C-alpha cells in the first residue's frame, strides 16, 4: 500500500510541475522499479512494447489521421455549412450549428481533439463575432466535442475493447443512440440559454440552401455510413474501417474537392503523429 501511495505521489508531483502525463506515469513507475524492485530494465522496455502490441490499437492512428485529413482538406467546412442550413435559423443558431456539426464530424473522426480543431476552428471566431459570450462559446465547443468519443468511431472505445476483450464493433453500435440523445440534449440547453441571453438566429431556413449544402456534403457524411455499415455488416473490422476512412478522406480531399495541398497534407501527417504519439505513450507506460 505504501508503494502504491509512493508511485501515485510521484506521478502527481511530476504532473504538478508540468511534466507531460505519459512521462509522469513512466518516471513514477521507473523510480519504483529501480529503487524498490530488482526487475531488469530490459523488462521495462519489453513491457512498453507489449503495452501497444495490439491489432485493434492500429485503428487509433488511422482514425486520428482521417479526422485531421478532413479538417486540413476542407471537408469539415462542408459539414458546418450543411449544419448551418439545417439549424442555423434557431434561436442561438450558431450554438446549435456547433453541436450538430460535432455530431456529424463525430461519425468520422474518433477523437474529441480532431472534433474541436475542425468545428471549433470555424465556429468559435464566428460565434464571438456575432456577439456570443466567450465563456458560452467555449462551453458549447468543449461540451459538443465530447460527442466525438461517443458516436462511433471512437478511439476510447477502441482502447477499452482492446484491453478488456470486448468487441469494438459492439461498442461502436452501443454508442450511436446515446451520442444522438446527448447531442439533442445539448441543443435544447443551448437554445434555452440563448433565449435568456438574447442571442439571435442566422438566416431564415431555406430548403434550397439545405438541399444544395446537403448534396455537397453527402460524400463526407457517407463516410460515417461506410464505417458503421461495414462493421455491422461484417465487411471489415474496426481497424480495417479506419484504414478505409483514411483512404476515403484522402481521395475526397485531394481528388474530388481538391482542397488538400502538399503543405496541408504534411501538416496533417505531423499533427496525426503528435496526437497518436501522446496517446500511445500513455498506453504503453500505464
Task: Provide an overview of this structure.
By secondary structure, the protein is an all-alpha fold. It has two domains: 2-39, no CATH class; 56-285, no CATH class. The chain contains 14 helices and no strands. The protein is globular. The mean pLDDT is 82.
Features of this protein?
single chain; 286 residues; mainly alpha
Number of domains: 2
Unreliable spans: none
- Please state the CA-atom Rg, rounded to the nearest Å: 21 Å
Distance between the termini: 18 Å
How is the topology of this model organized?
Blueprint: H1 2-16, H2 21-35, H3 41-52, H4 59-72, H5 75-87, H6 93-109, H7 112-129, H8 134-145, H9 155-164, H10 168-174, H11 176-197, H12 207-232, H13 238-256, H14 262-285
Q: Quick gist of this model?
A:
This protein is mostly helical and 286 residues long. It is built from 14 helices and no strands.
Amino acid at each position: 500500500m505504501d508503494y502504491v501511495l509512493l508511485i501515485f505521489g510521484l506521478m502527481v508531483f511530476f504532473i504538478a510541475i508540468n511534466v507531460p502525463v505519459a512521462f509522469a506515469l513512466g518516471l513514477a513507475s521507473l523510480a519504483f522499479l529501480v529503487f524498490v524492485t530488482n526487475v531488469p530494465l530490459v523488462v521495462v522496455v519489453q513491457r512498453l512494447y507489449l503495452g501497444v502490441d495490439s491489432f485493434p490499437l492500429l485503428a487509433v492512428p488511422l482514425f486520428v489521421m482521417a479526422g485531421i485529413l478532413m479538417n486540413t482538406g476542407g471537408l469539415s467546412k462542408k459539414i458546418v455549412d450543411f449544419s448551418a442550413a439545417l439549424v442555423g435559423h434557431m434561436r442561438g443558431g450558431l450554438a446549435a450549428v456547433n453541436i450538430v456539426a460535432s455530431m456529424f464530424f463525430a461519425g468520422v473522426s474518433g477523437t474529441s481533439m480532431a472534433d474541436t480543431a475542425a468545428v471549433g476552428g470555424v465556429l468559435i471566431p464566428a460565434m464571438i463575432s456575432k456577439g456570443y459570450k466567450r465563456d458560452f462559446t467555449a462551453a458549447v465547443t468543449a461540451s459538443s466535442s465530447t460527442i466525438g468519443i461517443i458516436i462511433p468511431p471512437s478511439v476510447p472505445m477502441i482502447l477499452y475493447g482492446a484491453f478488456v476483450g470486448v468487441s469494438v464493433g459492439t461498442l461502436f453500435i452501443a454508442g450511436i443512440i446515446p451520442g444522438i440523445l446527448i447531442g439533442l440534449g445539448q441543443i435544447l440547453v443551448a437554445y434555452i440559454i440563448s433565449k435568456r441571453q438574447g442571442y439571435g438566429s442566422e438566416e431564415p431556413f431555406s430548403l434550397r440552401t439545405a438541399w444544395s449544402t446537403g448534396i455537397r456534403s453527402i460524400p463526407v457524411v457517407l463516410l460515417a455510413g461506410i464505417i458503421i455499415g461495414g462493421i455491422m455488416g461484417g465487411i471489415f473490422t474496426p481497424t480495417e474501417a479506419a484504414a478505409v476512412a483514411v483512404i476515403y478522406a484522402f481521395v475526397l480531399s485531394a481528388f474530388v474537392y481538391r482542397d488538400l495541398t502538399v503543405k496541408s497534407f504534411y501538416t496533417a501527417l505531423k499533427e496525426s503523429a503528435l496526437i497518436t504519439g501522446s496517446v500511445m505513450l500513455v498506453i504503453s507506460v500505464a
